[in-house]
Amino acid sequence: MRVGLLEGFLSRRYLGFWEAYLRALGVEVVRAPKTRPALPFCRPVQELLGQLEALKAQGVDYLLLPDLQGGVESERGGGGCPWLLDLEATLLRYFPGLPPVLKVPAEASERVLGRAGEVGQILTQNPMLVGRALDRARSLLKPPSPLGNPQGSVGVAAQPYLLEDEAFREEVMEALRPLGLLPYFPDLPPERLREEGDRLLPMDLPTDRELLGMVHYLARLGRVKGLLLVVSYECPPIPGLLRKAARRLSKPHRLLTLGEDWKEALEGLKREMERPGGA
Q1: Which domains can be identified in the chain, with CATH numbers?
Q2: Where are the beta strands (DSSP E) in the chain?
Q3: Please, is 136 exposed, middle or buried when counting C-beta atoms within 10 Å of its C-beta (0-12, 13-18, 19+)?
Q4: Can you give the pTM of this predicted structure?
Q5: What pLDDT digit, counting tens, does each position of 134-180 carry?
Q6: 3-state secondary structure of 33
Q7: What is the DSSP letter of 138?
Q8: What number is the average pLDDT over the span 126-130?
Q9: What contacts 24+ positions apart, CB below 8 Å, involve 119-128?
């Protein structure tokens, strides 16, 4: 039995447990390198589809996919972005011949155990083996360690799947470095950020609440003098959500698109941050 795993789209939150659990079941875990095929989608989706193409070529029996919204449904959430609303359904639409999907929660907690038991039964039909595998992997049902945060003066808000990508964080740091600036990435756990988001705008999807929570949290931090609101390349729905949040900001801010030239926008942001009373 071969199960394909994907890196990205919140994999940092859930994949540690599931990979260990699958191995404990005796299942062969298959990963694919990140590539970026020339497709008319945002960069994270391009990377996701590149991995899918490689996994399909390697011949996996199942594909492990995250439930990004924890079962919450919304017609207006995620700015209408289909990849956020229902990743599995959208992949099936754009990627014919997708292997059978095992959908799992996008976060690791004790609530995952029920679904883990179901997946184990599907893959092994052996309740005793499933029980032993759960015992071995259960210690990994905890949030991942926080990513490094340079404690700068420029707060960075982006969809959670972007913010947890270390390549994205490095890209932001490289863009700010010539101006002598450092980023400050939101360092609260996801549930705390969702609570922050509820104070700013009422939304139903967890990823929307988390994104808005980043804006609310960063805007009230004294060390943060300006904000970058970053959206994925060619992902038009999300900027509308951030524009609504930006209208409530008193600090200098810029809405930027991944893949575009940020130099002029960042220079303007720095000038505003340095004005007396600019933050």
Answers
A1: 2-140 (3.40.50), 154-274 (3.40.50)
A2: 2-4, 28-30, 62-67, 101-105, 154-158, 183-184, 226-231, 253-257
A3: middle
A4: 0.91
A5: 999 999 998 888 888 888 999 999 999 999 999 999 999 999 999 99
A6: coil
A7: G
A8: 97
A9: 120/21, 120/25, 123/1, 123/3, 123/22, 123/25, 123/27, 123/62, 124/1, 124/25, 124/26, 124/27
